Fold this protein.
Amino acid sequence: MAHPVEDGSGAPSFKPLWRLMPYLWPKGRPDLKARVLVSVVFLILATGFTSISPLIYGWTVDQLRPTRANIALGTVMALIAAYMTSRILLQAFAQLRDGIFAKVQYHAMREVAVETFAHVHTLSLRFHLERKTGGLSRVIERGTKGIDTLLSFALFSIFPTLLLMVFYSIILWVELNVWVALSTIVMVIGYTWFTFWITRWRIQFRREMNQSDTDANTKAVDSLLNFETVKYFNNERHETRRFDVSMEKYAGASIQSQVSLSILNTGQATIMALGLGAVMGLTAWGIAHGQFSIGLFVAGNAILIQLYQPLNLLGTVYREITQGLVDMEAMFRLLNQPREVQDKPGAQALKVSGGEIRFENVIFAYDPERTVLKGVSFTVPAGKTVAVVGPSGAGKSTISRILYRFYDIKGGRVTIDGQDIRDVTQESLRSVIGIVPQDTVLFNDTVKYNIAYGRIGANEAEIKDAARLAQIDKFITLLPMGYDSMVGERGLKLSGGEKQRVAIARTILKNPPILLLDEATSALDTGTEREIQSALNEISRNRTSLVIAHRLSTVVDADEILVLDHGEIIERGRHSELLALNGHYASMWNKQREAAAAREKLKEVENDPDVAPGIAKTEPV
Ligand SMILES: Nc1ncnc2c1ncn2[C@@H]1O[C@H](COP(=O)(O)OP(=O)(O)OP(=O)(O)O)[C@@H](O)[C@H]1O
Ligand SMILES: [Mg+2]
């Protein structure tokens, strides 16, 4: 479905141009402002030389009139030299103008792109879950390109052409007569109007092309990211067909775009020829009546041909500019996207003394129709460990997202050391919480990079220390490239257990006072489970920890265990108390014990003593 951020429906608005102005006249950058001014001067000079050169050409022709008995060869040569010089200078100044302005242009592009990128990172999790990443990156990519196009074309094609138009009209008026000047102006206006009119009609095809291009891209990215899943279900053909549907739309829109381009080009050529004919006819009439010289006829012709070049480009320019505007608009709309979770004005940094977490009657819903947490209250005293257990979908991970303030709650309060998390800055809140998420996704980079991500700038020794504490160091040294091994797209070259230990290592490196552990559901083999457990015990020592657990054996030592079901805490207490209660927890415990015993038995049969400790058997993730 079309997303309003992407398509930019309706006529192109020129508002994005105004949004761009501050970037072109940047505050605190006098050097860039100076460049803008200098390039304007060069623009005028280049246009001046462009308009004078056909005139010199005409004068040369007059000197060569065959009726003259003796041609003043010296004058002719001087005129030819002047003509040459003007041709060189018009190019030189145009190039200087572009070169000088380039820095301003790329500065603006960079600023806008970086600002948008940073802004996209501040948008809520909800926004990102609903958005398609492939499409999002295209919006930024196209928006940046749009700025490039707009500046290149608008500043150095439209303005010069307008200026050239003014200069030429004056020349034609002064040298020939007002009718020649007027017919040229009429031709240019007619030409421009026709171009704009047709181009506006054509824009819909471009939009369709863009939309299906974004669609195809999103589908391709999503399908390639899910490469494994596609294989599991033998759905390559289904994926290809989906991709082809978008490509078919793209092809259809492209053809319409091509046909309409032909109409545009033919119309433009006709108007141009009419204008040229009018000027030539008027001048010929003038020569016949002894008003003008032959040289002026030639000069008039040269002027129109010279005007034809930028005008011919005008179609492309208008197309590109409107396209650039549409793309920029989409990008600026992204930049205007309000943040769902915002810092309060004047929010202070969170001050952590012990790191006591308190949930007071927290009510939360992702969508208004379905309440996920229905009044959850608990306290994790400073330095203690509280575990949350319960069936899948109960709302356990939701608790961690709320504590991290990915979403704001509907009712109740969440505090850390007595400060409501809505009253402090998100940055300070997130800096004190370390999270080992349920699904660890890694960057497609080296193991070292992924661990160091916990604290960018950590040195080699600290990284290795963290890896050792997370019990992943032995595994890493077994890798052919050691710490420099690549982990693959989203970390898929590592097993689930290995990935999780990398995540633990980077949280150790972050060294936060509050810890949030969301245990992976994938059944790890007992050896790996024990190792991960001891790694987790290592980091949760002396920290306030909230542990979300599936394997109850990992939380028997917790200071309090909360049993969450359908967004409500139905049982709470220490392990022994809950067992004595003989309720939900006790039955979960017994089930898991039985399953574990059965697993152990199986293990004994197939256990391979040669497997080095610390290497997880690879299991599908
Ligand atoms: N972004 C979201 N938008 C809408 N609903 C969501 C979203 N994320 C989770 N939910 C729903 O909220 C409920 C609780 O999800 P949550 O991830 O907290 O479950 P969980 O207890 O962690 O389960 P598991 O043990 O499987 O990890 C689920 O029913 C889920 O479908
Ligand atoms: Mg979960």
Q: What stands out?
A: The chain has 19 helices and ten strands.
